[in-house]
Design a protein that fits this description.
Elements (H helix, E strand, L loop, with lengths): L3 E4 L5 H8 L7 E5 L11 H7 L8 E7 L3 H7 L6 E5 L3 H11 L2 E7 L3 H5 L10 E5 L22 E4 L18 E4 L4 E2 L2 E2 L1 H17 L1
Parallel strand pairs: 1-2, 1-8, 2-3, 3-4, 4-5, 5-6, 6-7, 7-8
Antiparallel strand pairs: 9-10
């Protein structure tokens, strides 16, 4: 059952304020905090300024790819509720969770069934799983059938080329949360009209179930 969504890759205050104050705001808002390869990356000083807002009903997520101690120390006082971690071992995640007292979204990039099975190693250290494509900053797809029948004791977030106007019922039996970034953009920038359509469609779906 779809409970909500994460809108990821926010980098400007205008879009952030639109999302936070939307009648149907996302459960999670993600910020690319240490991955300069992404066009959605937000440099530290800009990130501090951007996050100086009232979150209202949303929770903030720091998206981190194999973070080092330096970036973890730099962002530790920022108002993040979750750390979304790519390319980290279970031991690394355990240490980060214990030291910084953050909830953890473990991001697993998927191409083959063997990639999915890696989830077993993280069951003791994660609060939620994100199944994503191998594209990282690119909006690639993966075969959602690979995760359709797995049984987990944690909630599932799904990413990977989901579009703003997709039939969201297609994801109901796969995930608890949908994670969109590129699917809400036009020419590489977040598009408020697409965000609005998506959030309204998601709210409609939730009211039907």
């Amino acid at each position: 059952m779809i409970k909500g969504c994460k809108i990821c890759g926010i980098k400007d205050s205008d879009t952030l304020n639109f999302i936070i104050n939307h009648p149907y705001p996302p459960k999670f808002i993600g910020f690319i905090s240490n991955y300069p390869k992404s066009s959605r990356y937000v440099e530290l000083n800009s990130l501090k300024e951007l996050l100086n807002v009232k979150k209202n009903k949303s929770e903030f997520v720091a998206v981190l790819v194999k973070p080092n101690n330096e970036i973890l120390e730099e962002i530790k006082s920022l108002p993040f509720d979750y750390y979304q971690l790519y390319d980290c071992t279970p031991d690394t995640i355990k240490n980060i969770k214990q030291k910084y007292k953050k909830k953890i979204i473990t991001a697993l990039t998927i191409k083959y069934e063997s990639d999915v099975l890696r989830h077993k190693s993280f069951s003791d250290v994660t609060d939620m799983y994100l199944f994503d494509s191998k594209g990282y900053e690119k909006s690639h797809s993966f075969d959602h059938d690979l995760i359709k029948n797995i049984k987990l004791n944690k909630e599932i977030m799904l990413a990977g080329n989901i579009k703003f106007d997709d039939n969201l019922k297609n994801y109901e039996k796969i995930a608890n949360y949908l994670d969109l970034s590129g699917g809400l953009e036009t020419s590489g920038l977040k598009d408020k009209s697409k965000i609005d359509i998506f959030l309204k469609n998601l709210n409609k779906l939730k009211n039907e179930t």
